[in-house]
Amino acid sequence: MKQTLLSTLLSILISSAFAQDITLESESEKVNKYKSTITEEEMISHLTILASDEFEGRETGERGQKMAADYIAQFFMDQGLEGPVPNVPNPYFQQFDLYKQKYTNFSIQKGGVTLQLIEDIFPYGNFSFKEDLEVIFIGYGEENSMVNDYDNVDVKGKGVVFFEKTPKNYGTSKKGTSGLRLKAKVAAEKGAAFAIVIAESDEKYTTQAKRYGSYISKGRLMFDKPEVKNDNGFGLVLVKPSSFFNLIGVSESKFEKKVAKAVAKGKSAASGEIFNLNINAQFETRKMPTENVLGFMEGTDLKDEVLVVTSHYDHVGIINGEIHNGADDDGSGTTGLLEIVNAFTQAKEEGNGPRRSILFMTVTGEEKGLLGSEYYSSHPIFPIDNTIANLNIDMIGRGDAAHSENPDFVYVIGADMLSSELHDIHEKVAKKYVPELDLDYTYNAKDDPNRYYYRSDHYNFAKHGIPVIFYFNGTHEDYHQPTDTVDKITFGPMAKRAKLVFATAWELANRDNAPVVDQKTEQQK
How far is Cα 53 from Cα 93, in angstroms, rounded to an integer? Predict the structure, then answer.
């Protein structure tokens, strides 16, 4: 009896192992045939269009993004994919509304001199403010037991202006000088309507403006329509020193010398000087319709189960007058997805369509916080419970410094986070079909300081317990720069990465069983 039981168990184990590899063994000729249709020439053709100046950097909700959406939808249609979105004029578009908040105007004016947003003014927070205002100079905006810059100064309903950086010898308390947040809080509590903070130097102002200016000038996108608050309430801005002193018509060096004398005598630097300024800040909200682009290939005997292949087709648009073409981020991933579609289409035309259904989806709003994939995962066209895995392609067109000697690599992230079986399947697929491509797991950790596992569209599937693989080539000096252009793309390694995604998709779409989730999801932890 023991011998019979042992034989039975051995038979089950052998059958199970064979079942796991049966697709790899029986389908290899087909996979090799159709992955060969993914070519550098076709990739160049697609990417040259998607990352062209004509598409204006594919900013979410803007004209260039709409043009890219039309291009992708037309390609899906030409390839014979179905538009799966019901009850809409264009079934390839999953449309939804976002709301953009941004400053449509921000200026401070006196006489014939005007300070402009970002160039001279950096606002903290969101507010609208339009008024001719008396602004009082209050030194460093300090209030403690040793120095009170507000002593004998009534700022209620007026503006205040003070230096950002307080000298160490300026009447400090045991706790030290106040930070900007506390200074602003004190000004607001005193009843000031507006605070202008003079930056420590032109250089430090410019550094901050360059680092964060695009976020302010381009605005913020969100799902829910927000209320614009603080209309003519308290406003806070940082100004470039040279610009501010030019505005008020005062010598910067003479002004600073006068302040320094007061500080040297242990007195408050507040002079009480009043400047009459016109402040015009208009912070507005507008609706920004956008769309994910979906193409569906129905499966055969397992058609109710769905594999989702994604890339994001949006980028960051035009910043400071320069088009950010986004050839690698993520024109490369979108181009790879289009080539994978073409390979599956040719297979289906020859009677070799997938057993499971495949949803090919290019998503919008990734650069704004994974908004398109979040919308789909919250409003899925196909039940989330029927989704077996997500393969996400975000930047596969370049290499990084760590691989300067070996461009044939791909960073693999997330494959084992929810399903150890998916990881094993992927390893076998890679070894069999693209053995020259090194799989790099450097960033494959939830506690990786770069947090790449959380920073692309696969995460909006993973958080619902769906196994994912994220394909990535690392960042480089052109990341989010206007120099991320087609001429920098290495199409040979890019094609190999796309072939790996195709072969993995083929295996997942055709094997007998979907990968088992055997790791805890985010919700279970």
Answer: 24
